[in-house]
Known about the structure:
- The protein has two domains: 2-238, no CATH class; 317-478, 2-Layer Sandwich (Heat Shock Protein 90).
- The protein has eleven helices and seven strands.
- It has helices spanning 2-28, 36-58, 69-89, 94-126, 131-163, 170-196, 212-292, 296-311, 322-337, 355-373, 434-449, and strands spanning 341-345, 387-394, 398-407, 413-418, 421-427, 454-462, 465-475.
- It has a five-stranded mixed beta sheet with strand order 1-2-3-7-6. It has a two-stranded antiparallel ribbon with strand order 4-5.
- A hairpin with a 2-residue loop joins strand 4 and strand 5.
- Helix 2 (36-58) runs antiparallel to helix 3, helix 5 packs parallel to helix 7 and helix 6 (170-196) runs antiparallel to helix 7.
- The chain is elongated.
Amino acid sequence: MTYAYRTILFMLPILVSAPLTVYFIDGVLKYKFQNRKIVYLSAFLFSITAAVITWIISSDGNGNIVRAYAYDTTETVKMVFVLLLMLLNMKCKLWKKLVVCLLTDILFSVFATFFPSLRDILFFSLEIMDRNARIIVFLLLEVLILLFEFSIFVLIDHIRKRYDDTPLPIHFLLGLVLLGILSTLFFSLLANNFEADYGEYSDMMDFSRLNTFQKSELAITALLGLVAVIVLFYVRAARKERDTLKEMNHINEDLISSQTKYYEASVRADTEIRSIRHDMNNHIQLLLLLLGNQEYDKMRDYLKNMSEDLRSTDISAHTGDVIADAIISAKKKEAEEKGLILSSSGVISSITITPQDMCKMLGNLLDNAIEAASDEKLLDLDPDLRRIHLEFRKTDKFFLISVTNPCSGLVRIEEGEEDGTSGDILIETSKKDRKNHGFGLKNIRSAAANYDGEFSVSCDEKPYGYEFRAEVLFPVSMS
């Protein structure tokens, strides 16, 4: 029975090591694996194989450990295996995979100080004399500490999933590693200082000689280090939640403003149409009089004025989506104030988009287009060319939202990464508020992603200068 307990005690940490590491990267750090089931299954199979091989190499026939170095070798092989899983099943740049894997390894070295230390402190506090009982209790404590470690990861995963379900930025991960290293150094210095009180010092921590107060102080120090990690994640998640709420409030304000302007324009248009209908008989009488007198020039001018009056009653968009109509109406008026023409064509079909996401996409697309087209370098451009065109188009498999506008120069476009998110569009812009400009582009992409849509931009040379195009493409099968 003792042999079986020793075997389980030795193999248990190896059995959970790879799956726990994969979960830490996938669930805590949020660097998602593509084929998660295959990745977790591979991690479990690797752990079982590694545990069996390590036990065979490390022990003799009686269950005594004779080669301790095999355990350390297994940990190294595990991280190489995890890196291989990341290379094959994760959408991320190579350098980022390497950095995340390396920093994860360092963090697990920190965990390997705190969690086993808590186990040992608890074990030596019990002062059990019977040899078999000591093995059983130690095994139970090992299981409890592993469950405690896993529960901390689950707690952080829950916090981040609710408020901040995005890959952890490298700079934050570096800060986490630094905190872990400093906490480990402080813990080690404290433990060594306690051991020095007994006139002995060794590289391995021996908690058996410490008194109850010293054990308690070390346990509290280890727990405080773990609590600090949880607090860091919570603070980051809370900040992300606050930023998200501020963004949603801003979007809702824009929606209310656009809808208000839209309905005001609708009321004005309805009033003007009623007025025109009421006066139509007078208009016809006057036109007949001008026609009878052969005053064709006056007749042409009168018809032109009537046409302009009718055009002013147009609420600018009939997309089939009242929110989109409201946004376009508001942006059209804004464009006109800057001497621009905003035209739209097509209808929204085969896809249902929430008002918030519609505001994120259309609002930011048109804001960026108006900003670029109103550049002072384009003031001398032909008025007909200072045009922004918004198009909605449906094909058999896709629905497209496209915005084109003139721009003052060639725009440099790069695929980059910010805050750990791969594939962000980075645009070199002259816009003063670069941070919010980039935030707007990310909002478009994130809103499109809610419907499995893709956001792309391009800039092409034209006879009059340059034309910028932004497109959001949705698969209609997701509607």
